[in-house]
Design goal:
The chain is built from nine helices and six strands. The protein has 263 residues and is an alpha/beta fold. Strands 1-2-4-3-5-6 form a six-stranded mixed beta sheet.
Length: 263
Amino acid sequence: GHGEMVQDEMAAGQVTDGSSSDALALVDPELVPALAAIPDFGPLSNETLASFRALMAPVAQETAVDDLLDVDEITLAGGAGQPEVGALLYRHRNNAGLRPAILNIHGGGYVVGSALRDDPAMRLLAVEAEAVILSVDYRLAPETPYPGPLEDCYAALCWLHDNASNLGVDPNRIAVRGVSAGGGLAAGLTLLARDRGGPAIAWQLLLYPMLDDQTGAHPVAGRFVWPASANLYGWTAYLGALAGGEDIPHTAVPARADDLSGL
């Protein structure tokens, strides 16, 4: 099906030398302008990491719901042997009744990004979903490989559950949400919480999650923004000494899980 279609397009000369200009012909014209506003992570490496982190630094923005929310920077105790964890807490000023809660885990290929970069979206989500949101600032790879970032997320989940009554949160309605690497961490977190008998997670929202370190190159997919080279770098940085091996825990790479019961 799709693979044969791509091969036919390549044979027909629509994708001739693997260049971005050729691949651009396969992008819907309405989406082409948006690519100019999104960084190309193709050159991502240890040498360029600092510049990419600076490029992805948050920009202060006002939203239409700022006057409806209390937003606090908080510090949580880490897990056993782990340092403290930073987070942003979003609460609606109308605290009538128990609310659901969302643990938000930002994206960035495991190597860039921050909770603060998600701030405008989390303000809107807190109001639209009428939920308390805890957005965790987990440590980044390669300085902190697995399991450090996941342990930060687990500490945040435990804090949210333990403080549910003080926050006006229904502990039976705690969800996890993650984008890209955050989606991979959210999926790993649900597996970890199940394996440890930890706090119950009612729902997980995984947005284009990084779930599988074995994802290979494709003639077109990932050509823009997050190409195969960046994907390899992100996974290698996150897995550290485990990278390239077969004996990798499913909490590190959720696609390796063979038992999804109890999630």
